[in-house]
Design goal:
The complex is a heterodimer of chains A (about 290) and B (about 190). Chain A is α+β, with helices and mostly antiparallel strands. In chain A, about 45% of the residues lie in helices and about 20% in strands. Chain A has six helices and eight strands. Chain A has an eight-stranded antiparallel beta sheet with strand order 5-4-7-8-1-2-3-6, with no helix packed on it. In chain A, helix 2 packs across helix 4, helix 3 crosses helix 4 and helix 5 runs antiparallel to helix 6. Chain B has about 190 residues and is mainly alpha-helical. Chain B is built from ten helices and no strands. The chains are: A alpha+beta (about 290), B mainly alpha (about 190). Chains A and B meet through helix 2, helix 3, helix 4, helix 5 and helix 6 of A and helix 2, helix 3, helix 4, helix 6 and helix 8 of B.
């Protein structure tokens, strides 16, 4: 078989990724054992993959390191046949007290005590590992709780928003259903083509409400003002406040043939600035 | 415990680390962690799409690596390749588990919370080649196949089905993508 062709087929890249079937994997390993070029190529691919993965490495939270190291440490010391390194019980114990050290005698711990000491250290190590592990779970649980609390408050907020909105919509419907209510749609003038705002006016109760519709947000230092036009004279019908009220209560108006909105300095004006008139609608033309 | 202090001995090479792990020298665990955990965590996070699950999987991976180190054969490949394999198998088990879907439901919020966490812990990126550089060098179809095969644990058959391309094309795309990556890092 042609080794170069085999190498350039892409199978070695899949091998390194672990994307081959066990059978195919064995084939690659058999060929790699026989051909130096294949082994070299596999190394090069592995190095590239490692570089790629390192390039996209992410640092886990610092406590993960502690937990893993302690878990492995406690696993090891609790394991069968493994004794804590603190007391090296596997080292051969001299049959007779060591006197060779010129007076510096090796302190030997009697075997039963030694065993108990070893056991207690094992317990200490295991439990510190366990504590770290549970501490970690605890911090995770806290994290989960934070997420759930956040989610909960978000939902509560949304529910509150829906309720307020529903309340406003209900108010709108109620205003429209009032006997004698007149709906006046005000259409955009040349400075605001396409803009629409609506008033719901009840001449008998004098109640006037505004749906600001698609009126753009007022620029800083400016405010919209609603006017009722009666017998050719403008009457202040109130300032447009708030951004999102569905139906804004305005001043009481007894008589009007038309309504209009102008943009005025904050606080409003005593008479409308005509060249800043955004929308206007006549009563009775579009009901 | 001594193992909990940051390992300063980063100079030892891969074969020395393997020898320590074989000798069951516990000081090797800290070295292993410092050297490989971030890269493994990156792979796991990409696979599981969850920081929490990736941390769990990282823990299981290193515990398993320590417990089964004798099954690593340096003749067959680099340590990292084997570590990723162990990690990927653990991640795939988690992926298939029942709890996985439930965990993912909170992802949007979790990632929101974690963005704040991570902003403060962003590491030193100075020796990283920008992802952008790799992205620019790879064609979209090459990126796609690298992502599936190397980071998401797809077999060649699964990748072929997922992408709707023949097996041969999967192979040639992976090959050309890896050659490009090798050029970037060389």
């Amino acid at each position: 078989m042609d080794i170069n062709e085999y190498i350039s087929s892409g199978i070695l890249e899949l091998y390194v990724a672990g994307a081959l079937s066990p059978q195919e994997e064995q084939d690659v390993e058999r060929l790699a054992a026989a051909h130096e070029e294949i082994r070299t190529e596999i190394r090069a691919i592995e190095e590239a993959f490692e570089m790629l993965a390192r390039n996209e490495a992410r640092e886990p939270r610092p406590q993960v390191r502690t937990v893993i190291l302690e878990r492995i440490a406690s696993m090891e010391s609790a394991g069968a046949g493994e004794e804590p390194r603190a007391i090296d019980a596997s080292a051969p114990v001299p049959a007779t007290p060591d006197r060779s050290g010129g007076g510096a005698a090796v302190i030997r711990i009697p075997s039963r005590v030694r065993y108990m000491l070893a056991a207690s250290i094992t317990v200490a190590i295991v439990s510190s590992g366990t504590a770290a592990y549970f501490g970690y779970r605890w911090s995770r649980a806290e994290n989960d709780l934070t997420v759930l609390t956040l989610e909960n408050s978000r939902m509560a907020q949304r529910e509150g928003g829906f309720k307020a909105r529903l309340h406003q919509e209900q108010g709108y419907v109620a205003a429209l259903k009032e006997p004698g209510a007149v709906v006046v749609e005000m259409k955009g003038l040349p400075i605001a083509p396409g803009t629409v705002a609506t008033v719901v006016w009840n001449p008998s109760s004098r109640q006037l409400r505004l749906d600001r519709g698609t009126l753009p947000a007022a620029p800083a230092g400016k405010q919209y003002q609603l006017w009722a036009l009666a017998d050719g004279k403008p009457i202040d019908a109130g300032l447009v406040t708030g951004e999102d009220a569905v139906l804004l209560p305005m001043k009481q108006i007894e008589r009007a043939q038309a309504f209009a909105i102008t943009l005025e300095p904050v606080g409003g004006s005593s008479s409308p600035t005509l060249d800043a008139m955004y929308v206007m609608g006549k009563v009775g033309t579009n009901v | 415990m001594a193992e909990n202090s940051r390992s300063t001995d980063r100079a030892i090479d891969e074969s020395a680390l393997v020898a320590l792990l074989r000798a069951r020298d516990r000081s090797a665990v800290a070295i292993l962690y410092d050297r490989y955990a971030p890269a493994l965590y990156g792979v796991l996070e990409r696979l599981l799409r969850s920081h929490d699950l990736a941390e769990d999987a990282l823990q299981e991976t290193l515990v398993k690596v320590w417990g089964n180190f004798e099954s690593y054969d340096p003749e067959k490949g680099r340590l990292f390749t084997w570590l990723v394999r162990v990690a990927r198998n653990i991640a795939l088990d988690i992926f298939k588990s029942k709890g996985y879907r439930n965990t993912l439901k909170n992802q949007e919020l979790e990632s929101l919370v974690d963005v704040v966490d991570r902003q403060s812990s962003a590491g030193d990126d100075s020796d990283r080649i920008g992802l952008r550089e790799i992205v620019l060098a790879l064609k979209p179809e090459q990126q796609e196949v690298i992502d599936l095969i190397y980071f998401r644990g797809y077999t060649q058959d699964e990748a072929s089905k997922e992408l709707g391309i023949p097996l041969g094309t999967v192979k040639t795309r992976v090959r050309s993508a890896l050659l490009t990556i090798r050029k970037i890092f060389s």
